[in-house]
Amino acid sequence: MSTKKESFVKGTLILAAAALVARVLGLAQRVPLEHLFNDIGNASFTQANNVYLMLLPLATAGIPSTLSKMVSERYALNRPHEAQQVYRAALIFAAVVGVLMSTILYIAAPYYAEYTKVPESTLAIRAIAPALLLFPMIAMMRGYFQGRNNMMAGGISQIIEQIARVSTAILLAFILLRQGYSNTWMAAGASFGSVLGSIGAFGVMLYYARKLRRSEEQKALYDSSEARIPLLKIYKDIFKLSIPIVLSSVTVPVVNFIDTSLIVPLLSGQIGLKEATQALGIYGSRAQSVAGIPPVLSIALSTSLIPIISAAYARRDEVHLKRQVTLALRISILTGTPIVLSLVVAAYSVNGLLFSSLDGSGIVAMLTLGTIFQITMMTTNSILLGMGKARISMYYVLAGLLVKFGSNFILSRFFGIYGIIAATALCFIVITLLNLRMLRTIIPFEILGRRWGGFAVAVLASGGIGYGLNEAGLILTHMMPDRVAFLITCLVVGVAVVVVYLVLLIVLGVLSRQEIAGYPRPLQKVLGPLMRLQPERIRSEQ
Question: Whole-prediction pTM value?
Fold first, then answer.
């Protein structure tokens, strides 16, 4: 049991580390590209990237997660031949869908670019289309290796993919700039980096696949005389499980796709085509990059609890289930909030530090603020999936996306780009509330109960102090180079917000000693010493 737990924790850490490295490299790519591109280049690259990121999960149809489950179960039942047949069926599907999706995207690129009023993005979308040839197969291979409890293969392939994608994207954009090509071609060159990233990831997965195959041939695990399962039956079993999963997991890519498709058409009549294109470039190259940071840690921490929730639900262990659901929600909210706060109050300095101008600091701040609801949505979605409620989760996601689509048209009329960003937050809030309502019918739980007041005080106080420090830090721009001043301000604000927030959570009794004992070990090490600050009166009440 302990070996399994250690293996699970190790696997979770590998995947979380890979996701974090991928997110950091993604930001590292956007920053230099934002400096190299003008508004057209930024808008074109944003559109190509968001179309691709939306099509990718649809191309894999949620099969990798299902494949992982099916392979794991069959090996546990000592039926490796069946697992191999399921794996082969998934690879055949991936190969066919990869060709179809890549071809459709290539052909549809000019029509989509024309509709979204950024015709210059056609080349960038066509340049990224070939990446869809390999990525569905890579996703299936990652799902298979997870089912075999080998997280290293997927983690390393993800890191290699990002290194290849980021380095080639920046290099190609820079070479095309030096050769005198337009931003349209530069955005296409940067988009083509995803194709080279897919080749790098595929090479890593092939290496691990051959290595595993050789070791299993030596053990003679396969028996070619075993009965073959019809392909149609395999696909029926796969899709029954995978379709609800994919529809509930594509929320964020679909929201980003809706926005990049509608920002210019909705805003060009109000503020002009040039300004609307600039707003799209800022939204994609700056705001989305910064807003992508807060969910990484909190989702990795809460996701590590999902298999435990799944097991508790299967055993009908209500006490354990209630504890784990509460823990997952608390961890995701409490760890996500200080990161969101730091980036929101220091948005002006973050913008000045990373990007080529201070334009759009408000857009960066507002989109980042909404990620706290993205975190709660993703956590509650994962809990419902862990309980086998993927179909219900799918319906709630569809309801949220309808709210998003309708709100975009209404709110953009009154608030422009900020209305579109508010519609995104509204979408996440609707899904979160529906998920919580459903969860409460399954198991009664409280996230913070009577401690919401203390939490609100901690948020307002740390946010206020952070904002004050950011404003004070701007004085440094008159005394030293701007980027140095912005760097110092960002570091001071980040440290101050996190420290003040944590101290207030403890002093106000939002965190208890007993609760911390159930947190993942890295969090225990950070919070344990700080518990000495908690007043004796509050300690005795807990």
Answer: 0.79
